[in-house]
Specification:
about 200 residues, two-stranded antiparallel sheet, globular
Length: about 200
């Protein structure tokens, strides 16, 4: 499948350069799993942070760009909640948006429009701090933050070939709901969402 081949190009520095060059010429594609989990039964209380790591949640409007430069990225709304992990510095973060659409560039459309759904995105842990449970703790804390609102479901998009992130979300109680196939070539766009609960398309 051409979208699968194109998407795999992004997984190393040189491949990413090729992918970006193709994108500038109007050729791009991706394969993403849409994950979801229920927030029922989550009480929103604090949990134990990974050893040597402190988790903190802040509204986008309260972030100091000088203190958290890695979090000053496009698309962050003042109402979003950013959960970040800190040791002697910030080593990871995830963004939680709810009751608003978020533009997902990888499939070139908006997600998270449902009024009772929270969307987790921009999950990142610095490479030297991985394999310590920080990513799972960030996702768990974000779900607890979402549970304090009127939202009932948390969702996320994960690339099909991003096995570590898929395992992380599944460990955190998320289930694959659908497969999104997206491709664009020379002005023609194709986007399909296949339900994983049955053999039909959503």
């Amino acid at each position: 499948m051409i979208t699968d081949r194109l998407w795999r190009l992004t997984r190393n520095e040189y491949g990413r350069a090729v992918y970006d060059a193709l994108a500038k010429r109007g050729v791009t594609g991706s394969l993403m799993y849409a994950y979801a989990r229920s927030l029922h039964g989550i009480d929103g209380s604090e949990h134990t942070d990974p050893d040597g790591i402190a988790l903190e949640a802040r509204r986008g409007r309260d972030l100091d760009a000088n203190e958290t430069p890695k979090l000053a990225f496009d698309g962050l709304d003042p109402t979003d909640v950013v959960v970040f992990a800190r040791s002697d510095r910030i080593v990871g973060h995830v963004v939680l948006s709810y009751s608003r659409p978020v533009y997902a560039g990888v499939i070139e459309t908006t997600v998270g429009e449902a009024i009772d759904t929270a969307y987790l995105w921009r999950l990142h842990v610095d490479s030297e701090h991985r394999q310590r449970g920080i990513g799972t703790a960030l996702v768990d804390r974000a779900c607890r933050e979402a549970a304090r609102t009127d939202t009932t479901t948390a969702t996320a998009l994960v690339a099909v070939d991003n096995v570590p992130s898929r395992a992380l979300f599944e460990t955190a109680g998320f289930e694959r709901q659908s497969l999104i196939v997206y491709g664009r070539a020379f002005g023609l766009t194709h986007r399909t969402r296949w339900s994983l609960s049955d053999t039909g398309r959503e």
